[in-house]
Amino acid sequence: MKFVDSHCHLDYPELSDDLEATLAHGKNAGVGHMLTISVDMDKTQRIQAIADSHPHIHATFGIHPHEAERTLKEYSLDDLKKALRVEAAKPKVVGFGETGLDYYYMHSPKEPQQESFQAHIEAALELDLPLVVHTRDAEEDTIQFLKEFGQGKVRGLIHCFSGTDYLAREALDLGFYISVSGIITFNKAEEIRKVIADVPMERLLIETDAPYLAPVPYRGKPNQPAYVVHTAQKLAEVKGVSLEEVADSTTRNFYQLFSKIK
């Protein structure tokens, strides 16, 4: 069986300090492909260098909502829009994000978060690349922005799903995918598991968000792509299907969404 980690941060020290060991561990666990995710301008070159050096790794480009205020102080909104289009032309960049809205931590005020999110949505629509969407305590605004600026045509996924039935239904209605992380293995995640149980297999992906959110039995330790298998095992249990079906479906869904990957 082969798995895809559809969201990890291979440039973070917990993974990059011994990157080859991280990748070897993933390979040994059956992880055949990884998508390493951008969160700010400063890390772009490092992320792309990792992707360029490994055929089974691709990358995204984007600004995390936590970084929106700082980014838009250092770069104009026009600079961000230009960068989105320039980076999208690079062969290993296959999507935009992670972007979105986070009203829980509010590391950036709402206005720069929303300006950045809109820029990502419009670029994704124009260039037909998928969005990797982060949303926390901002479900209604997230859906509103995707509808208004995505025009019902923008593609993407809700990353690290921890939301409500409302978010899942609205995202699915927009044609989005739902990405499941190690959170699904947590004891207190029963409500999330109930929501995921109703999401069709053809619209699910799996991820680690490594080095964060390690699944049981590694909770509290740095996460890594190899551990996506534990998330897949729990997803199989929730959906009442085999682990092989989860591996096959989520891998197929990944390549359908990130269609730039050949």
What topology emerges from the helices and strands here?
Blueprint: E1 3-8, H1 13-16, H2 19-28, E2 31-36, H3 44-52, E3 57-61, H4 68-74, H5 77-88, E4 93-102, H6 110-127, E5 131-136, H7 139-150, E6 156-158, H8 165-173, E7 177-180, H9 190-197, E8 204-206, H10 228-239, H11 243-257
Parallel strand pairs: 1-2, 2-3, 3-4, 4-5, 5-6, 6-7, 7-8
* Regions with little confidence, pLDDT below 50 for 5+ residues: none
Class computed from helices, strands and strand pairing? alpha/beta
**Taking all residues together, what is the mean pLDDT?**
98
Cα separation of the termini:
20 Å
Count of runs of 4 or more consecutive helical residues: 11
Overall strand count: 8
Strand content: 15-25%
Largest sheet: 8 strands, parallel
Topology pattern, helix = H, strand = E: EHHEHEHHEHEHEHEHEHH
Rounded to the nearest angstrom, the radius of gyration is 17 Å
Overall geometry comes to: globular
Question: Main sheet: which strands, in order across?
Answer: 1-2-3-4-5-6-7-8
Helix content: 40-55%
